[in-house]
Structure formats: C-alpha cells, structure tokens
Design brief:
- The structure is a homodimer of 458-residue chains.
- Chain A is of the alpha/beta class.
- Helix content of chain A is 42%, strand content 16%.
- Chain A has 18 helices and 15 strands.
- In chain A, strands 1-4-5-15-10-11-14 form a seven-stranded mixed β-sheet, with helices on both faces. Chain A has a four-stranded parallel β-sheet with strand order 8-7-6-9, sandwiched between helices.
- Chains A and B meet through α3, α6, α8, α15 and α17 of A and α3, α6, α8, α15 and α17 of B.
Amino acid sequence: MSNTKIPYKIYLDENEMPKQWYNLRADMKNKPAPLLNPATMKPITLSELSEVFCEELAKQELDETTPYIDIPEKILNFYKMYRPAPLTRAYCLEEKLQTPAKIYYKFEGNNTSGSHKLNSAIAQAYYAKDQGLKGVTTETGAGQWGTALSMACSYLDLDCKVYMVKCSYEQKPFRREVMRTYGANVTPSPSMETEVGRKILENHPGTGGSLGCAISEAVETASNLEGYRYVLGSVLNQVLLHQTIIGLEAKAAMDKYNIKPDIIIGCAGGGSNLGGLIAPFMGEKLRGEADYQFIAVEPASCPSLTRGVYAYDYCDTGAICPLQKMYTLGSNFIPASTHSGGLRYHGMSSILSQLYHDGYMEARSVEQTSVFAAAEFFARVEGTLPAPESSHAIKVAIDEALKCKETGEEKTILFGLTGTGYFDMYAYEKFHDGKMTDYIPTDEELQASFATLPKIPE
Amino acid sequence: MSNTKIPYKIYLDENEMPKQWYNLRADMKNKPAPLLNPATMKPITLSELSEVFCEELAKQELDETTPYIDIPEKILNFYKMYRPAPLTRAYCLEEKLQTPAKIYYKFEGNNTSGSHKLNSAIAQAYYAKDQGLKGVTTETGAGQWGTALSMACSYLDLDCKVYMVKCSYEQKPFRREVMRTYGANVTPSPSMETEVGRKILENHPGTGGSLGCAISEAVETASNLEGYRYVLGSVLNQVLLHQTIIGLEAKAAMDKYNIKPDIIIGCAGGGSNLGGLIAPFMGEKLRGEADYQFIAVEPASCPSLTRGVYAYDYCDTGAICPLQKMYTLGSNFIPASTHSGGLRYHGMSSILSQLYHDGYMEARSVEQTSVFAAAEFFARVEGTLPAPESSHAIKVAIDEALKCKETGEEKTILFGLTGTGYFDMYAYEKFHDGKMTDYIPTDEELQASFATLPKIPE
C-alpha cells in the first residue's frame, strides 16, 4: 500500500487488532531493578505481591521474560467497544505549520473515560473478577482513572469504591457523576470511613485532601474488606503491559501503510501511556532491528526524568506499596497548586526509568502556559480539544515539526494523544483569562525533597 | 460479506465515504409546503431568502428537485477529521437484554462538539466563507450547536458570534470555554450589545434569558454588521440535507455487510438528526424499493408530532424567520423548567412533518425519567455515556428489542446515537439523586398555545 494516499484516519479492521500484549522487559538487557517489600526492603516475592494485587496481575508485575501475553477474550471484546483507536494523520496541522514533516497521532480519547486509562482498567478489573473477588478500591484526583475503573467494573459486575480527593470531588462534580452513572461508590477523601481518614480529619479539619491521603484510604479499605484489592492506574509494569495495546495498534496501522516513524513522542506522568505507545518500537530498537528517537515530555513543575534522581523510592505517599527504583522527585513531592496540566506523579515507571538511564530515550520538560497554547492551537487546527496531559506531547511534536521546517527534513513524527480535555475546562478558562502561571521548582526545593528518599540497605 | 461475522464497529474506508448529500425532497410526491415570507405571508423567493441565508444555502433551502448535491472538497476534508462515524453493533446490549433482535447504532459523538451538529455547522460556515462573508452569528442554549459552529468557523477563519442564554452561560461554563477555545465570541443573552437585549434588560432586569431572546439578538447583530449572516442548527431543509451524511454512511456500512434494518429510530427535536439518519432509507420507501418502519421519538414534555397541530407557524419566537408548515406546539411554547432532556423545540422540520402527515413515519413520546434510566443502562452496558437527547432513541430501541424478546422476532433495529452526555452531568446528577420529575403538558395548556398560531390568509 505504499503508493496509496494515507487516509486522515487509519482504523485497523477488527481482525487486525492485537490479541496479545507485548512485555518489553523480555527484550531489555538491563532489566528494571526488582521491587522491594517495604517491610523487609528485600526483593518482593510473588506470594508477597499477591497479597497486594490479584495473582495474575502479580505474575505480570514480576514477569521479565515472556515476550507476549495473550489478552483474555472478555477483555478483547471490551476493547472492541471502543477500539481500534484511530491513528490519525495530522494533515491540517502539517499544512498550518507549513512543515515538510509528516505528523501522526494515536488518539485514545474516543471513549467515555476520555483517555487511555481504560485499557488497563478493564484488564485489572477482569483479573480481579476472574479470581472471584467482589470488588476493587482505588483513588482518583481529577477523575480519569476513577472513571475508567468504574466503566470496567460496571461491565464486569464488580464493585468499585473510589476515593476522590475532596477538593476535586467538590470542584469537579461532573467526573463524580460520570462515575456514579457507572455505579461506582465515590467517597470524598479524607472521609470518616477509614482510620487514616478520621485521623487526618481530626488533625486537619476542613482539609481538601490529597492524592496521598486518598491512596491510603483506598488501600486501608481494600485490606479491611473480604474479597477486595487495591488497584493502580499507572507506573506499574502490569499497567505498561496492558497499555502496549496503544503501540501495537499504532505500529500495525503504520506497517499497513509502510510508514516508519523517525520520532516518537509521548507525555509522561507515571509513564503508562508513553510506555504503552513506544513499547513495540522500543523492542525493535533493543533488538537492533530498527532505530527510533523517543522523547518523553513532562511538566517543568514535576520534572522527574529531567531533574529527578535514579533511586529506590516509595510509589505512594503512604509508603505502603512496594518500593521501586525509578527517576523520582521524592514521594512527598507535590507540584505547586498553580499546576493545572496533570502528570503530577513524583516518580516514573521503572521500565521507562531504566531505558532512560541506559540512553534509549530522551526527556524534555515544558511549561504549562506553552502547553495550553499548543493545546488551543491544536484544537483549532485538528478539531479535537486535547487533554492538558496529552498537550505536552503536542507541544514537543510541534517543536520538532518546526525544526523540520527550518532544516527541510521530511521526518515522520508519531505522538500519543492520550485523551480529551472536556473535563478540564477550568484549566482552559484560566488560560483564556490570562491567569495561568508557570512554576519551576528550585534546586533547593528538589534537594530538600531528595533528602527524604528512603535509605536502602546494600 | 454476508457470512462474515459483523464487527462491533464498522468504519467505512475513506474512499467509501459519501461525496454527495441526498435531497430527500426530490423523491417526495407531496413536497413540504413552501416557506412564507413573514412580511408578506406569501411564499418566499430565492432573492428574499438570500437576505437571510447566504446564497448557496438559500438555494439548497428551496431546492425540491435535485436528488444529489456534491459536497465541496473542503467540507469533505473537514469531515475526514472526525468521520466516518462508526456504525456500532450493540452486541453487549443485545446480550444483556437477551433479545433475538439485532441492534445497531450510528454514533455521532466522536468529535469535540459531542454531536452530529458539526455536520451542518461546517457546511453553513463553508458557504458563508465562500460567499466572502466575514462571519456568522447564532444563538445557543446548552451549547452543542454553538460549539459545533465555533469549531467550523475556527477551521475556516470565519468570525463567530454566539449569543448564549445567560443562565446556561453562567451554569454551564464548560461549553462556553470550549467555544472560547475555538475563538468564538460568546455573549450572555440578553446583553447590552443589541437593541432587543437592552429592551429586555430594561423590562426584566436580572433575567436569565431565553432561546427566543438569544435568537433575536443573533439576528439583529447579523443584520447590523456588514458581511454577517445568521445561521441555524436544525429544522431547516438545508440542515436536514447536510445531516444526510449520517444516513448515507450508515446505509453504506450496512450495505457492505448485507444488513437491512427493519426499524429505524431517532430522537426528534427540530428533526435534523432524525431526518439525516432516515433520509436514504426513506428515499427507498418513497420510491417503493424497500420498506422500513420509522419511529421519531420526542419528549413527552415537548410533543410536537404526537400532540401538536400541522399548521403554518413561526420558526423563531421573535417571528423574524420565514414561516413554515409543520407540526407545532406554537412558537411561544416552552417546555417546563423541570425538563432536562433537550429536544425543546416547539416545531418540527417541514420535511419530517409532511412525511409524518402522509403516514410514512410513526412518532412516540417518552418521559424523561424513563429516558435517563435507559441512558444509564446503556452507558453501563455499551460503555458510552449518551446525551439525554440521544437517549430518547435508546429508550425506544430497548422497548422494541424487548418486544422482539416476547415475540421471538429477530428484527434488525438501527437507531441514531447523536452524541455524548459529558456536558449534561447536572441532569444525570438530578436523576441519580432522585430529583428528576416528569412533566406532561395538559390539553388546556396546548390549546392555549395553539390559539397563538398565526393566521395565514388563504
């Protein structure tokens, strides 16, 4: 098909959709450092991990060798309700930029959760159901992950308890109502339902809550209820595994038209979207079959790759989950309250951290006003109003396309458009009203945060 | 392909997408009654109509004979950014209902405007631009049409002035921000910018505004500004023409897999989505080539087809636009304030009115609590959270599927899922909290409203 004109949108046929996830670790020479049990500070075993996650997910979390893992049929069927996600040729953007670059984006926003999070939510809910569990608990900030998990649980008749950071619960009632539509039990956090919640409310009456507190409440609830597990929407190896559906579909669509990307760009918070998008391409690079330039884009206000340290750290503020070695700003790092652009996680997936450490991937940080400017520009030119998170990738894709305009290079750029910004209009409003500011943590702030990193015995 | 398993989603290839709109009037033996000029109460001429709409649109409005009209290339390219819209087989819904019926829906919500309105917005903006106009004005209530028009104007570098009903402007800031993202000038109505606005504010200080008032402000502004025209999102023949892209795509997708629907269902406010969806199927019925059952679904609180009269009436509360013969509740009819489900227009497209009058189509009215129950059920089973408007069609599609369950008939049902409900979460919240009520106007209320219909000289 190389001479065919590339359509605006490439949708794979149903029978061309991937039937396996790809486990990138199988092709990594330097594997990510092992997870540590927070109680012992020793590498965590499968049986220990199975107390935290359901068994099949614990296996996936630790599996470094199986390259392909079959996607269960029930998950494949769920995927068919909102996938294949389109690979889109950004003809209008190219024309507007007057660039010789060819720009593609993989769009994950065509579902009610509005993002790629659903890809892993359904997998985690499926394995929980398959193990005979009654329900799952989780936390949510802005609500994307909570929405995705609610949808997945509703499909599988699994109970879903979401602790939503109280200020979001009150300020963003829409996401909350979406979750309720899917039958989820949504509790503003901190709540009186948990010991940790009661303690926080006693010490800080009237607090608006935090993600760290919501995680702790979700974990406590899961451990107190028979047949419940706590689930997480990013960072973990299992989540990256499920998210490879993004990259596998993108690569299949590109292969179908003989398109080879030169640069692959994704936004990076915990790393689930970026890891999923680049996986099959990175696999080729690791195996020496092809070369690609990979760029992780993170907010300047939460710059774990570009300014963090590569060290063992807690995944959660509550220090309950296993520790992992990753680029981190310290588990107590919280981006300034002026930050509206998402991607606020203090660390980075251990797989991506290792790849970055080994020089397979670049990272850039961008400031949020420039991100929202890119978002608005993109919306006007390509139609879709992007999520602030996704717009980090848009910003750098545009930067790269403009470089091509200068040099005359006809590079092919692929970026991940993880979702839509329909529930982020307060942030857009701030931007329109000129009230959005940028924030970059000082070296002193970061050093102070690094000082709180846990000491790991050799 | 008749033996192939039907995929969950059928996307036409780009080269299979329709390149012409279909003008249903060409196949109607009884044409819709002519539009009347409100000044003379005589059939309006092309030149008179060209003062209201731009020329090409005025021609389309009056053209009763040309069966197919080429879609200009620029519009085709815009369509490619968010079309083809998927024709979806509702496998999960069928399974949940345990019905032998086969259910399909044409989903028009995969774009930032969240509805089918964009199909006509881009066409109207295109012809305005093509005629050398500077901009367009319009009104918007909840904001779907305003958003669609903003997106279209942004793409074409056309100025867009939207008068948004003040209470919506204040209570629904998200839609307003979406429009601002696309560069539209959004003014809460009534405003001090227009004579009619100033008069209303003088007489009713602090009023939250109304659609009728917003229309009047938009029309006044268009007539006062050099190079501007007023545009409308539904009801008109031209709008139904543009919306036939929905039905043409749906039919092409069904033909590709040898699927023939028995029942075709759409929600009906002004009629643009229903008219667009059924057009090519209705054409076959009118030409005697095939038979289908068509069902228009309207809210019980605004029942123009099921309880209105077939008469000449004003399209707008301000009585400025041409009159058309249609099923109407009277141009001053306003559904009760408890009505949350959209579809609040007092009349019905003259094309659909004529077809209904001639017995080619049925109509049903449904109450909003049952509509929201169907919406929530659908969201949980099929994933997508539907717009309240679309959920009227869902309700009747489910009713028909359950009838098939009783009789054992394996009917094929096609319905229009016009959009998503992401900006309608206040209504969902009301429903979740048990605060939603139903309202059916009394016969006395309707009779009083009919009494205000204009007297047309014989």
